[in-house]
Design goal:
The complex is a heterodimer. By secondary structure, chain A is mostly helical. Helices cover 83% and strands 0% of the residues of chain A. Chain A has one domain: Four Helix Bundle (Hemerythrin (Met), subunit A). Chain A is built from seven helices and no strands. The N and C termini of chain A lie far apart (60 Å). The relative contact order of chain A is 0.17. Chain B is flat and about 50 Å long. In chain B, 17% of the residues are buried. Chains A and B meet through helix 1, helix 3 and helix 7 of A and helix 1, helix 2 and helix 3 of B.
């Protein structure tokens, strides 16, 4: 069977999906801006309780992984299959490091008694509760996207291995790459809103 | 895109990350403290433009995909802007 291919249509479809993702996180940013204006002091105090080192480190490694994903597309186009695979493998491991850091960070917060409905939070003001509630929902939803994005990169990796994705048919890698960049794009805004409110 | 240009974009993004972290530690005083959030969002928006234009290849996409993106951001801006107006004058 001769399949009709439409790479531009495939990419446009992916972009439409990404717009819906932007609106999903956009709703969380709306909630953030409303409660930030209402409880500014609590949000600034909350931001100071977050670990700037973890936040900055995760920002840096996510930016590097975005670069390696973009470079893997260049490598595939240049017919450097092994380089493309190595760059993708590196990006997936960076995603795992990101998740491990998140696990450590959440674990530390939970150990300190800061988690939704914790006895400590119940004694705090409504603004502090909103800040940490939003922190868990936003970073949790983002971490879910890191898991999905890493899985998509692994699928691209397997397809390149099987030669189903090659320089003539790069669309799957390109679209999975777009998803990974979106994960990075959202973190670019999550990072200053939560970790840098000072 | 060439590896070298991609690496150049990464360096710009890392420099902007350093800039936003150090800007957030600046003491602006009571009256100008509100500027912090705007500086953060401004730098984040510049970073986002670099990721979109180079890493996500919007530079090489046809104009209609770029315009769709602009429309999506406008809708988000209306969504956020009108909510803030509503809350501010309630």
């Amino acid at each position: 069977m001769n399949m009709h291919k439409d790479p531009l249509g495939d990419r446009f479809g992916m972009w439409l999906f990404l717009f819906s993702e932007i609106l999903l996180f956009g709703a969380l940013f709306v909630i953030y801006s409303v409660y930030f204006s209402k409880y500014q002091a609590d949000f600034i105090a909350g931001g100071r309780q977050l670990d700037l080192f973890f936040g900055t480190f995760n920002t840096v490694i996510l930016l590097i992984s975005s670069f390696t994903v973009a470079a893997s597309i260049t490598a595939l186009r240049n017919r450097q299959r092994k380089t493309a695979l190595a760059l993708l493998g590196f990006s997936i491991s960076v995603g795992l490091v990101f998740l491990y850091n998140k696990y450590m960070e959440w674990g530390h917060k939970i150990h300190l008694g800061i988690y939704p409905d914790s006895p400590w939070l119940k004694e705090q003001s409504h603004g502090t509760n909103m800040f940490f509630g939003l922190y868990y929902v936003t970073t949790g939803l983002h971490a879910l996207h890191v898991i999905i994005g890493g899985t998509l990169l692994a699928v691209s990796f397997a397809f390149i291995l099987k030669n189903k994705v090659d320089p003539e048919h790069p669309t799957l890698l390109e679209n999975c790459g777009l998803y990974w960049h979106l994960v990075d794009l959202i973190w670019i805004f999550v990072f200053p809103l939560f970790y840098l409110s000072h | 895109m060439e590896y070298r240009s991609l690496a150049g974009i990464l360096c710009i993004l890392l420099a902007l990350t350093a800039a936003t972290v150090s800007a957030s530690r600046l003491e602006l005083g009571e009256n100008l403290h509100f500027l912090h959030i705007w500086i953060s969002i401004g730098i984040a928006s510049i970073k986002a433009c670099f990721v979109l234009w180079y890493f996500m290849h919007l530079k090489h996409e046809p104009a209609f995909i770029r315009w769709f993106f602009v429309i999506a951001i406008l809708i988000l801006a209306i969504f956020i802007g009108f909510t803030i107006i509503d809350v501010a004058y309630r």
